[in-house]
Amino acid sequence: MEQSLKKYVTTWGNAISIADRKPENYAKDLTLRYPIRPMFDGEKIKITLDNFCGTEPVTISCVYVAKSTDSAREIAVETSTAVTFDNGSEQITIPAGEAVVSDAVDFKVRRGQDISISLYLEEFTQMRSAVLITGPLSKGYYSVGNYAQSGSLAMDVTRNTNWFYFLSNVEIYTACENRAVVCYGDSITSQAWPDYLTLRLFRDEIEHTAIVRRAASGTRILRQYDNITYDSYGLKGSVRFPREARVSGADTVIIQHGINDIIHPVGVEVNPFRPWSDLPTADELIQGLRQYIVQAKEYGLDVYMGTLLPIYGWRTYEPFREELRCAVNEWIRSTSEIKGCIDFDRALCDSLDPRAFAQGYDSGDHLHPSGTAYERMAEEVPQSLLDHKEK
Description:
The chain is of the alpha+beta class. 22% of the residues lie in helices and 29% in strands.
């Protein structure tokens, strides 16, 4: 009977992209600790460690899960439990380009009670498979030394980080009515609005939904950079989406992607890696979005699409880019190929000059929203999407 009443559902997740290339992109004798806020009760968990963007194998010496204390970087030591792989091994080597899912770990999880996942890297490890995320629920730590089972991370050897390395998925064995919503996009989605959407679920007592972020800064739908100057701008949509949209327990995806395709090309005379040939037409960009829709439906996902946000004042702004943005947005608003449009653009733009953010909604760079604007984006997601339990 239990098998029919429960299933694994992803309660938290990230895209795996390419870390910013630096000479020191190897680590040794390092602990990573990532607090996670579960959205469901459950008795077992599984985690995914992902080396998709690595160019060589990486070995994770050990992984532990524990309940967090009131201090995010501290854990209740008595709850610390080893996460094993391959039927009981605490150490796991992940080949380049691959991911591994842990054994099922008996670990009691309660909705809203933070847990922490700690990884220890004993030997030199290539730190290439990672993603940068920010928001009130997206804070990690690293410490020099093995602190994977330690109650607290020593201040003198610990720093905060918003880079999440290797950890891409946390699944909970939970009630069958629980489900996930995937938020897919670029830096705007890798920043705070998915976290605020998660907090809205707690505020509104929506108990059967998890928000799973799949976002990577700088990414485009149609192109990617195959050079070390810009490879941290991530993978193109045809590489990302088939991996990132397949989420256990997910029935819906919110896609907000495409602005980087519009703003990046400047010509080789300005930047040799950003030719004008990378600039898509509106039809090409729409076809890229249509490919997302086709794939999402193959995975059994309802598709909601967010409009592209204002860019007036951004350093590469030009009227032709604005025309392209508006053409794509009008298609998103009018197409019958998706379940619904979430009009982030109209929610955040200036009513007198819709090319620009409304006052208080611009972070200052004229591309990324402010913290207040990210909260507004979370409020724009329809209640029916969050309440949805069965198709």
